[in-house]
Specification:
single chain, alpha+beta, 4-stranded antiparallel β-sheet, two-stranded antiparallel ribbon
Amino acid sequence: MTSPNKAIDLIQSTLMVVEGLIKFRFILTIILSFNIMKRMSNYSYVSGERVIKMKYDVYAKAIWFIFSKDCSNGLAEKNILINRQFKHSCKNEYKNMIENTPSIGSMKENTMSLILLFACMIFSIYKTCDNDLTSNDVRNMFQKIEQNPIMIKFSKKSVFTEKWQSRRQAMAKRSLKNKFEYDWQSELIQGTSINEFELRFFTCGICKLARRENANDIVKELCRFDYWMAEKMGATLVRNQTIADGSPTCEFNYHKTEI
């Protein structure tokens, strides 16, 4: 027969276990609620449809880590105090801009996401400077970025192969079907040989982002960067019109550079 003391100990132990389970359940509920709220904050609604927003993820952090110092160095001639507070403000603006921009798909599905992140970095610095940067200031930033070894290595890709053009063709076809607001809808037009092709864009994510962030004054400097990229790819770029200029399309005509 169980003694009264043992019975009391058993009851107390049971109560402690029950109390522990209640606390665990309470903590778990808070954690789950936080995760749900975090996911909810990652999208908004437009005309009743859910719009997923971009994330400040490892790709976004990598863009900032690799290129933000080049941008700061490019502003050395500008009368701006490039201190810790300035850099912190730029980074916060960059993070907020990303998290308020609709997603255009995962990085695996749409590599143009990198371009959109890159534009967010440039525009966040522009906004932190109270939109006081000139085209020449932005050009100086790009000159520093062009000297970055990682950018040089990233830009050297072979686009005059059946494999690359086939993959780019598939991406262009997907872009015409999706409903991503900030995506680049495009088509790839084959040339007379593998050594030439045209990329025609009907929408431009950078231009839409520039309009939203009141950065139209510098958007053409981002367009100018395409010529440097083409050179690193071993190509000559001929482009007579851009959406940034007010034209309905951007027409990129690529020809393999003769060695």
